[in-house]
Every structure is written in C-alpha cells, then in structure tokens.
C-alpha cells in the first residue's frame, strides 16, 4: 500500500494546487495565530473550495476552546481536527463529540518513554501524528523542522493509523519510512523556501519520494 502524505501549513492556492496534483492525501491548515503559517477561517475556506473528494482537509489547532472550534467549523468545512497542543485524552474525546469529526492527536517523541503517550492517545484518537517533541524554549509546539531518532519506532505496533512527522524533507523521507515503516508522513518546514512560504517544487519532490516503492 502506498504511503499517505500530509502537507501541513498550507496558506496559498499555488501550494494547495501543487499538493493536490502531486497526490497528497491530507492538506493541513494551521489555525494557531502565533504560527507563520497561520490562516484565518475565511482564508482557509477559500483555499479548500476546490479540494477534490478523497483528500482530507485537516484543521490544526493548539488547545482550542469549544467556541474556537465551533466558529471555525461554521466558516470552513474540515474533515479532520488535528490537536497539536497539550490536550488530554479526555479533551480529545470531548473534541470528537463536539465536532463530530475524527481527531488526529499529535504526540511529541524524543525518547522511548514517550511511546507511553502514543499508547494512551491511541485509545481515544482516530489517528496519531508522531512528531518530534518541541524543545522547551521553542516558540511553536510543532512545525519546527526538527527530527527525532526514528529508531525509537522501529518494530513498534501502534494501535491506530498514524503519520510520522518532524524534520522530514525530500532528502530524508524515504529513509524515515524504511526505518519506521510509517503508513503516512507529514511535512511542513521541509517543503518551504522560508518560514511559512511553501515551495511547489519541494512539495512535488517530497510526495514523489514518499510514495515511491520502498526497496
Ligand atoms: O506549523 C506550525 O506553524 C505549527 C504551529 C503550531 C503547532 C503545530 C504546527 N505545525 C505542525 C506541523 O506542521 C506538522 O504537523 C509537524 O509538526 C511537522 O513539522 P515540520 O517538522 O516542520 O515538518
């Protein structure tokens, strides 16, 4: 089965178009005001207007309250909610009930002990995004272009569908998939020319290399 690709932090129509044409399975839109990739619900509504069926529109939130989720969903149709903050398993369950949408929970990994959280969230989330743990002094909880030691995941069984994230690039994504046997991969900074500026050529290269047969 081919690896699914999520391109995260899309904020311009050319990049959305490049991701769709190159075969992305998930398109991520960041609703976190401090991010250089931040989009408003109205901007996102315009960006997703022509997304074909079968490609999931993912809204990325950091510790959102109910009102934020409700007002965003009233403006932009989304298929998946990505929670990228310190939401508890209980909050994941609440967000699923409130929105009626599947939840992808991001879990930060730096060392083998962090896999306990992967297990805990696997019991409640519909999907997991296994990402590098953000450094304590990082301005953002994700999208920092940092990788973790992928060998931590080698040979692990994970309860739910999951995507590998953190510091992936067109140059390292095939090796990351080979080591972790990830079913899907997620990228943001690795397909940018500057923070918050997506590069269509890098998006095409990334998707081609992630979906090529792994030898
Ligand atoms: O991208 C952001 O600006 C961002 C802000 C707040 C929370 C999460 C954020 N991004 C998450 C991602 O883009 C990805 O899901 C993932 O962390 C991979 O990012 P990268 O290492 O840059 O490829």
Automatic annotation (TrEMBL):
Domain N-(5'phosphoribosyl) anthranilate isomerase (PRAI) stretches: 5-208
UniProt keyword Nuclease present: no
InterPro entries, per the entry: Aldolase_TIM, PRAI_dom, RibuloseP-bd_barrel, TrpF_fam
Pathway given in the UniProt record: Amino-acid biosynthesis; L-tryptophan biosynthesis; L-tryptophan from chorismate: step 3/5
Pfam families: PRAI
Record-listed E.C. numbers: 5.3.1.24
Keywords linked to the UniProt accession: Amino-acid biosynthesis, Aromatic amino acid biosynthesis, Isomerase, Tryptophan biosynthesis
GO MF, one example: phosphoribosylanthranilate isomerase activity
The keyword Amino-acid biosynthesis appears for this protein: yes
Top EC class, one word: isomerase
Reaction catalyzed: N-(5-phospho-beta-D-ribosyl)anthranilate = 1-(2-carboxyphenylamino)-1-deoxy-D-ribulose 5-phosphate
NCBIfam families: PRK01222.1-1, PRK01222.1-4
Similarity-based family: Belongs to the TrpF family.
Name this polypeptide is given: N-(5'-phosphoribosyl)anthranilate isomerase
Species the sequence originates in: Paracoccus broussonetiae
Gene that encodes it: trpF
């Amino acid at each position: 089965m081919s690896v699914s690709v999520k391109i995260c932090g899309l904020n311009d129509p050319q990049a959305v178009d490049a991701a769709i044409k190159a075969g992305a399975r998930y398109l991520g839109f960041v609703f976190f005001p401090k991010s250089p990739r931040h989009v408003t619900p109205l901007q996102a509504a315009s960006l997703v207007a022509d997304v074909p069926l079968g490609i999931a529109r993912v809204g990325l939130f950091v510790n959102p309250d109910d009102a934020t989720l409700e007002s965003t969903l009233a403006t932009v149709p989304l298929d998946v909610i990505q929670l990228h903050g310190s939401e508890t398993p209980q909050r994941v369950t609440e967000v699923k009930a409130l929105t009626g949408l599947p939840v992808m929970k991001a879990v930060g990994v730096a060392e083998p002990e962090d896999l306990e959280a992967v297990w805990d969230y696997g019991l409640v989330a519909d999907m997991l995004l296994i990402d590098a743990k953000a450094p304590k002094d990082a301005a953002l909880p994700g999208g920092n272009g940092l990788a973790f030691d992928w060998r931590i995941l080698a040979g692990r069984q994970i309860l739910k569908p999951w995507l590998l994230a953190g510091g992936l690039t067109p140059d390292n994504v095939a090796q990351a998939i080979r080591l972790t046997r990830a079913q899907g991969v997620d990228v943001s900074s690795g397909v940018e020319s500057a923070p918050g500026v997506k590069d269509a050529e890098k998006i095409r290269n990334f998707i081609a290399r992630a979906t090529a047969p792994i030898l």
